[in-house]
Design a protein that fits this description.
Elements (H helix, E strand, L loop, with lengths): L1 H35 L5 E6 L5 H12 L2 E4 H11 L2 H11 L6 H15 L6 E4 L5 H10 L5 E6 L2 H14 L9 H21 L4 E5 L4 H16 L3
Parallel strand pairs: 1-3, 1-4, 2-3, 4-5
Length: about 230
């Protein structure tokens, strides 16, 4: 009797695994079909805090009319919407926990799908933050066409953030030199791992120059991608 029960349990578990596999394959096929319609550039925009990528993203949007998507903005918008998903995310963040990569990817996927028909290109700002996220993005959503990495010396980043903090009315607890250097070191380590995976797709931009000089290099990199699309 125990043997028969064990067999039934194993059979049930095998059926559940098969069901999960089929659902996963169906979703992957659905995503592949969706991605066939994404014939515009997908660009990851990376850079340390204070590198000026926000300024450059605004200029890219103005020139190319690309869709600018920030994972942080998408999270805040979902929370502000008051949706069930937004309430779940708010509860997670309120407890000081990190929102799962799966949740962030779903928000990005939905935003890209929603704008795919009319968008001329997508700027994915500040994502991926680590190498596994990059692989997950390309598998679940679409391969990136270009990575713009705005490179600054660590001390330049620290000086810029401290100057920005001094001019702001809002004082952040992490806007001090010691904490900033720790944040930057973590960013640097994670980003180096990401860039090592995508050397052929990466344009390293010297971000210690004037805004227009930096943007000239950005335009050159983007135009190179557009010429191949």
């Amino acid at each position: 009797m125990l043997f028969l029960c064990h067999q039934k349990t194993m059979k049930k578990e095998a059926l559940e695994r098969q069901k999960e596999k089929l659902l996963k394959e169906a979703k992957e096929q659905q995503l592949l079909q969706m991605n066939k319609g994404v014939n515009v550039p997908i660009i990851w925009v990376l850079g340390g805090p204070g590198c000026g990528k926000g300024t450059q993203c605004a200029k890219i949007v103005e020139k190319y009319n690309f869709t600018h998507l920030s994972s942080g903005d998408l999270l805040r918008a979902e929370v502000a919407s008051g949706s069930e998903k937004g309430k779940e995310l708010a509860a997670i963040m309120k407890e000081g926990k990190l929102v799962s990569n799966e949740a962030v990817l779903l928000l990005l996927e939905c935003a890209i799908k929603k704008a795919a028909a009319s968008s001329k290109g997508f700027l994915i700002d500040g994502y991926p933050r680590e190498k596994d996220q990059g692989a997950a993005f390309e598998k679940q959503i679409s391969p990136a066409d270009l990575i713009l990495f705005f490179d600054c010396a660590d001390q330049t980043l620290v000086d810029r953030i401290l100057a920005r903090a001094a001019a702001s009315k809002e004082v952040r607890a992490d806007d001090n030199e010691e904490t900033l250097k720790t944040r930057i070191a973590t960013f640097r380590s994670n980003t180096n791992d990401i860039l090592a995976q995508y050397t052929e797709k990466t344009a390293v931009i010297n971000a210690e120059r004037a805004v227009d000089e930096i943007f000239a290099d950005v335009v050159s990199a983007i135009d190179g991608v557009l010429a191949k699309k």
